[in-house]
Amino acid sequence: MTNNAIWIVGASSGIGREVALQYADKGVEVIISARSKEKLNEVVTFKPDLIKSVPLDVMDECSVKLATYQLFADGEGPKTVILNAGAYAPMSFDHFSADKAMEVMDVNYSGVVRLIERILPHYLSDGSGKIVVVASVAGYQGLPLSLAYGPTKAALINLCEALRVELMGSGVTIQLVNPGFVKTPLTAGNNFPMPFLMEVEDAAASMIKGIEGNAFEITFPRRFAYILKFIRMLPYVISLPLIRKGTSG
Ligand SMILES: NC(=O)c1ccc[n+]([C@@H]2O[C@H](COP(=O)([O-])OP(=O)(O)OC[C@H]3O[C@@H](n4cnc5c(N)ncnc54)[C@H](OP(=O)(O)O)[C@@H]3O)[C@@H](O)[C@H]2O)c1
Asked: Whose CA is closest to atom 1 on ligand 1?
């Protein structure tokens, strides 16, 4: 493995898988992680010379430790990591469940925190490295059905904002990816309209383009993100009824 390799956590399906394949198509070495060994192996078969699988469960501290030890041994290691693993569980007030909320938080937020804790010291001692965190536009604003998922993404956005500021001048870059709706297994079960739904190939291409640059936030489709950002700026007395109206029936 070279320093130019890119490590994608959450690459057995959906956006992460497609990002891995597009990087490999460009000749970039990719390390892919997720829990499902079979699905990872299937991705490896597309470019076995460039794609390497390192199975990992972000909810399991030992698994995170082992994978990062394996990849960053001897001062080597990928100089870009994309922390993309995520779980989605629709939850509304009438099915409110602390267990479900904490399970989603464990994957989406704690998983990222566990990995950053292990990766950051390597990047700081080298004075270089890029950590890309995949959150969601669902983290901009509380949304119906998103009682378990939305708060995990809001927490990631807040974490990345703070890290980006703290790490200025350190040589370590934090980038935040906030996708809108993308056609993947994660959204396949949604039975409500998904405005500006994107194909996974387009989403992955937008993500890679953003990672090539240095902007803090990478978002797609932009029109949807800008609409949500605008709603976020409105006073609650306007924005909350507007969201209710826009998302009911
Ligand atoms: N699709 C959208 O519309 C959309 C919108 C906004 C944000 N996002 C975010 O984009 C990211 C990718 O989502 P996607 O749509 O591509 O979903 P996906 O197809 O379900 O992919 C999720 C990935 O995360 C991995 N993962 C889940 N739990 C894990 C765990 N405990 N440890 C390690 N890996 C784990 C899955 O692999 P295994 O199950 O094999 O572990 C899979 O590779 C997520 O963070 C999601 O929240 C998606």
From this structure: 182
